[in-house]
Amino acid sequence: MSTPRLKERLVALIVLAALLFSPPLLLIADRSAAAPGWLVAYLFLAWGTVIALMAWLMEHRHEE
Amino acid sequence: MRSSVVVLTVAFGYLALLFVIAAWGDRRAEQGRSLIGSPTVYALSIAVYCTAWTFYGSVGRAAQYGPSFLLIYLGPTLAMLMAPFVIRKMVRIASAQRITSIADFISARYGKSSSLGALVALIALIGITPYIALQLKAITVSHAVLVNYPQAAELRLADESFWADKSFWVALVLAVFIILFGTRHLDASERHEGMVAAIAFESLVKLVAFLSVGVFTVFVLFNGPAELFARVVAAPELTRLMSLEAVPGGALGWVGMLVLAFLAFLTLPRQFQVLVVENVDERHLKRASWLFPLYLLVINLFVIPIALAGLLLGDVSGDPDSFVLTLPLSAGLEGLPLLVFIGGLSAATGMMIVETIALSTMVSNQLVMPLLLRSRHLHLSTRGELAGWLLRIRRVAILLILLLGYLYHALIGDAYSLVTIGLVSFAAACQFAPALLVGMYWRGANRLGAGVGMSAGFLIWAWTLLIPGFAQSGWLEAGFLDQGPWGLAWLRPYALFGLEGWDIYTHSLLWSLTANLGLLVGISLFTRQSPLEQTQAALFTEAMHPGLVQTTLWQGQTTRGELRALLDRYLGGAATARVFATHPDEAADDSQPAPPGLTARAEQALAGSLGSASARVLIDSVVRGEALNLESILSILDTTSETLEVNRRLEQKSSELAHASEELRAANERLRELDRLKDEFVAMVSHELRTPLTSIRAFAEILRDSDDLPDEKRRHFLDVVVRESQRLSRLIEEILDLARLESGRLTLEPQRLDLVALARHSVDAVHRPQENRGVTLEVEITPETAMVIGDPDRLEQVIINLLDNAGKFAADDDPRVLLRLERYKDHYRLAVEDNGPGIAEDERERVFEKFHQIQRQEGGEARGRPRGSGLGLPISRGIVAHLGGRLWVEQAPRLGGACLVMELPEAPAEKLKAES
């Protein structure tokens, strides 16, 4: 918690993850049926992005 | 190779390997070289979340309900994102209070209440035992599939005698394992390092096994994802599986399941055990907060491909819950199915080990100990004996829990599919969430509210999920589900109060959590907390408070002897010696009063073994007076937070002050500069006025004193006097103009005028004198009219001034001046150029300073050109600025000397129309 804005960034990430994983965005991904598996691809992509952002938030200050 | 003997040898060999790893982990811990002191091991141990249910059931669920299985992992991902806030606080509280389980945590928060602890323990026992049964069932089923394939693994557990059931023996081996590695120390809040190491290892095994099946399915059975995908697209009933349609309850069910998984991840006893109790270092949370979600993502990558592949292959793959086994089996493989079986075994055993330890601790500390402490008989028992008792209680509890799980599995396990049991358990664990989470952040939540809320939530859970499960197993008549009990439709378990059409888990979660949370908040608002509750509430909610650590909160009186006897009786000699070693005092004998720190340490030691509620009862039995000083702790918290607040405000004030004084200093600086400028101005004005005055006076005196001057000379002198007087009055006029400009009292009469006409007029005015001085004046006006708003007299003054200046500074041989007027965007630009030496870049702004005069090279004055006052340009700029325009200097583009540009905005068009 040494970076002053880490808390704010974490909160923002949590909100982002909650939005990505819940219906309004999900329904869009579900209905824009470019291909049958699009919803699944969207879920894994969103999930991976959230994890990558969290990893970056948690680890990058070690290297500084 | 799939003979029963081989499979059993491998399975029990694997369990033996776990023993070795756990023993090694414990040995390393004793040597002080901990195996689990790494964030990666911590993250892997959290992966005990992935049970046999994940391993076999995810594929089954994906085959039936599409992507909804992912929710079970997205919820924990959200929870881990919050780890730096929520779980970190839980870890901090648990280590300060020596918490041993989630029941202990909740009981400690609400005034170390033993009844609340017992309630949590009971709910956990009822809610979680089926989950343990589920693991045993998974082991049995997977074993049967492995051995019997390609025959269907028809299982009739009731027909088999229990000694022929492999899961019975697995349960027994696990009981031995857990007793060996889970109850080595009495102090349950001390880490079970060997066990955690074994769990982390199991997490790796199940991950490798699952990925192997996934890779095999996608790349060997189907030549890569493209082919699999192409075949799925060809089968429309399969593409439906990859959309939201397949999710029970649709979008609403989706959110409900997300919340369910999120809360359950924090409240399942085994997750609480690995996340909080077994946490060695709260900094490990940092790595785990993304590594564990990553683990979940990776282990779920192949779930959908495997499910789709199994469905595509049809009959050979059998039940979806067994696809991971049947797919490699159908290809005739021998080794891979065995690996998968081991993976499933590790997922199941890992869960059972941790869950059983957590449950047995709860049972011994929250259910049995409080009962034992009430009986007079035990208080009189001899020293050290209770320590042994406690361990025995815990071991018996382990055996009983596993046996209960086995019985559940053997008797009613057949009735449920794997996933159903798992989710029912999740929903039971969720009932701890309000008391746990609200209690951590709201100081006002009290014991009565938590107890009533949790009980209500539990009853609704039982009504909406547990009992319907029995009904579906045929234990109750089926009409119960459709018509409600006694024909009361509003009591139908799956449509309580007429709420129909919801997915059953979301439905149950909504009602149970609403009641739970509502009662917790409502009752807390209208009842009082006991002093101890207030203290504990403060300690929990303010756990991250920096001032809390070094505070000693004891004020009750007891002697060292009494304390020593108490610890001896319950913890044994060695543990007692360790506690007293923290407060060594040579002089003190056992009749001396115990220092407050020692009393606190003693209660902690007892809490670590017996749970906080029992420890509290024991300490109370030897301490006289109010043991915990409520006033002092509340005042510590309040004063420190007040001090912090005051400090924060002071800091803010002082930074504001610093800011203000900085501004003051700058203003002062500006004032001083202005003052200096004013002095300079006054000096210059006096100087400028004195020069013509001096010559007027000198010539006037000559005229007065010398009567014999020739007429010609006299006329010349008079000419000089007149010229200097004109100069003087012009100068005074200019100074007055400037003063008016600067004070803002310059009266301009803006009107619409044509700049073209004005420019021509001005040129005419200066044409003659310029010509007399040999200056060539060129005019170049592009627009026909140039309507601007301005004061015609003042503008003409400006233009004449510019032309004058240009004439003065034009080159000595062949002096030329050019006036250009052109349109630039919605402005008009009037530029006056000369072919003189030009003005250096850094001089360009200074020509607009008052009395600034450009140093003419080698005596330009000698050529008889009039000297400027140095006020013309500042006044011109002031006038132009007043009219909304700009005046500046640039390099002359045509003649190469200086170029003064005046820019004025075009007059608004509507006025033009109105006039025309």
Automatic annotation (TrEMBL), chain A:
The chain crosses the membrane at residues 39-58. Keywords: Membrane, Transmembrane, Transmembrane helix. This is Uncharacterized protein. It comes from Halomonas gemina.
Automatic annotation (TrEMBL), chain B:
CDD domains: HisKA, SLC5sbd. It catalyses: ATP + protein L-histidine = ADP + protein N-phospho-L-histidine. GO terms for molecular function: kinase activity. The chain crosses the membrane at residues 6-24, 36-56, 68-87, 116-134, 167-183, 195-222, 251-269, 290-313, 389-409, 415-438, 450-471. Its EC number is 2.7.13.3. It comes from Halomonas gemina. It holds the Pfam family HisKA. Residues 647-684 form a coiled coil. Its main location: membrane. Keywords: Coiled coil, Kinase, Membrane, Phosphoprotein, Transferase, Transmembrane, Transmembrane helix, Two-component regulatory system. Belongs to the sodium:solute symporter (SSF) (TC 2.A.21) family. The keyword Cell membrane does not apply. It is a multi-pass membrane protein. This is histidine kinase. Residues 684-908 form the Histidine kinase domain. It is found in: Membrane.
